[in-house]
């Protein structure tokens, strides 16, 4: 049986979402995204040059990926809504990742404004994936507001610090009905595998790939790790104990 | 360029070592080991029935794997040495994993006896892989004694607790000249990936595979995770920061 | 120079806040609170029997403590506001700990409703201490709404799991202008000391004291730990390094 | 009932051992040690100027402390033995902290040599406290060799990294019959409290006190933290749970 992720009427086979920021150049980005096997790629609308088609970042993305324009730069629900509508008007599809951020130091999102933007955009037919600060009640409200998935941060964007908010993310996974996609802070493939083992539906990784010494190979590493973590989740992890449990028989047969 | 691990004159492409304990039956074990792509498999000599060839565990192992008989059951260097010699005499090859354990609760090894056994067996031409309690000075002595690799425990055998001895294992990886193979305690693919990201040369996983709900699929998961972690190590992990680093440009282009 | 905490015009010398729930009986509670040296004690209005004065929980509290009625049981801002007003009308003073909780499994607060209640009650002259899910933007809004301090949870109420939300709580401590008081989840004195070392202004501990085998002695332990952590914070913790730094001279004087 | 620690026929009331290295000057050291209430103070024999009595470090130590000369600088059991004998011959008493260290980067001890030195010195009537790399089998051998207590490291000396070897130290505490004194790496009072909560009999702290901005106040903080942790251990920590447990009644009495 195929294990697929359904979001917005689309059936995804790959659970690694990627981003387009921080790569050395467009060609490196293109190759890394291709090698990652990612099917959903987020891009800041700001980066899309709507006139200079030649150099447009979009032309470097694999043909079959789902574009996930994000509202990076938005400081309020209203601004996020405007960016989302503009992206759709420009032909970037109806998926949108809501980012409402005023904090410039940690880039932490404003859950309240995010909920408002989600509600409006979901009603307008967008497939809304909100970036959020992990908090169960906010996640439930995003769910109620029509979010197609909820994207809690593991730690601050681009920090590579790993899943520091693990406790709350596990609660979101346990209690929410929409897919949980861990976004931000994932710094290593082991972090991505851990998120998947916890039951996350997908992860979004950008900085850890783009800022590796070898982004293309790191993209492959994350693809493998996400698959490993997902497979482990589906295969039922064994029990954890305080003391040891012999793998090999201990009876001393020589005595 | 191929990334291979050299131990005892053998060039290994796969860095996941597996074990034969705790599987529901021999067929399940056989399938899990095959799917893991493991090239080195440890087996307690006690399990090998030297007479009933038909049901012999060895007949269920893939033809091309390197057999790593372990001295499970040994309580002293002397006993470990006898088991190793017996294994070789029985045609099980010249690789041996030294386990000298008297503690029945946590199954923690005796480093001092392990060093003694290593010295004797290495001189006799064995390829010696000693299981040990992570301790830099003991690891250096094992190296001096002729160990082909050193196998520190992550946490007690079969506990699935993960790499609790991370601090010391990292020091071993930094300071030793022989390969470090993390053995015992690895409970999830993310643990295995982490060990590899830290620079371990390989990991040995048995319980976490054998005690999963679906051991065969879990074996695949570990294979992927080890590859992911190794690839990440080779690709150069990006820097970790306390504050955020924007992946997407933040200049509000709408304002 | 005295190190005091100013909240609502009051100067507190002790930074351990306590609660009144889960004790075996009122006398045990009374003794534990006395021994804790706590100057602020939270009590659910529900517990206060406004008629049976004799058995009233309030009569067991030390005379000089500041009563911090909480709105336990409130599921909306409106309900929290009603409870707060009722408490004040009953002569319980003008401090109030806002708790707005609908989640019955993890008892996680609703930040959005909490902000609303804080705004209304602060305007009515209450000294408002809101219990919240750690989230920087919500904390800033509580600050703007007039909160006298902000009380982020370390982990779910009564879980004794410790400061699992450490990453975000540290950010709150760094970025907020009002005192941060870590509430919920503190399970051991070392957790309380850690919160204070991080720069928290105070901690609230209830379950870990009340559910200890010896609540009275555990109250003393928490008092000491909070003082230790605060003193460490003020004394400037030394630098952390990856390698060692000799405490004793290493030059071998015997050689 | 008094809670005291018995080592070498001495009854100690205070469980914080301190050191004499790294202070700005002898007066600061003197004041910090006094304020710490420490009853056992370690000093490298190298520091003791046997001729210039005036400036001798020993003259700055409180009169009633037990001197714990350490063998800092020793690289073998033999050297440690010589230093210990010399210290005793100089009138420094019969307590000795064995340190056998060849690793200059992490200052990690050699357990095997340490066991040898312990055996010899214990037979000569010394009260031997060996510094060791946490390892159950080595600890049991130290016990058998006559150690009065065993001193596992939490993390490298002077690193302030905390109790990174927690897993193995807990096993030592559970399984050994002699007192376990956590030494090295303790960076904050919360680390010291944690060690005591785990059941350690004492802790030794030097760098974290001496390298604080205010060593004298930090010494007080550690004294309080050790007392807090010990008291918590004796008072029986409450149970830890995954979900919440209400401290306050949740029945909405307003509805």
Automatic annotation (TrEMBL), chains A, B, C, D:
It comes from the Bacteria. 1-deoxy-D-xylulose 5-phosphate binds at residues 158, 184-185, 206-207. Residues 7-249 form the Thiazole synthase ThiG domain. Pathway: Cofactor biosynthesis; thiamine diphosphate biosynthesis. One of its GO terms (molecular function) is thiazole synthase activity. The active site is at 97 (schiff-base intermediate with dxp). One of its GO terms (biological process) is thiamine diphosphate biosynthetic process. One of its GO terms (cellular component) is cytoplasm. SUPFAM superfamilies: ThiG-like. It catalyses: [ThiS sulfur-carrier protein]-C-terminal-Gly-aminoethanethioate + 2-iminoacetate + 1-deoxy-D-xylulose 5-phosphate = [ThiS sulfur-carrier protein]-C-terminal Gly-Gly + 2-[(2R,5Z)-2-carboxy-4-methylthiazol-5(2H)-ylidene]ethyl phosphate + 2 H2O + H(+). It holds the Pfam family ThiG. InterPro entries: Aldolase_TIM (IPR013785), Thiazole_synthase_ThiG (IPR033983), ThiG (IPR008867). Keywords: Cytoplasm, Schiff base, Thiamine biosynthesis, Transferase. Its EC number is 2.8.1.10. It is found in: Cytoplasm. Belongs to the ThiG family. Homotetramer. Forms heterodimers with either ThiH or ThiS. Catalyzes the rearrangement of 1-deoxy-D-xylulose 5-phosphate (DXP) to produce the thiazole phosphate moiety of thiamine. Sulfur is provided by the thiocarboxylate moiety of the carrier protein ThiS. In vitro, sulfur can be provided by H(2)S. This is Thiazole synthase.
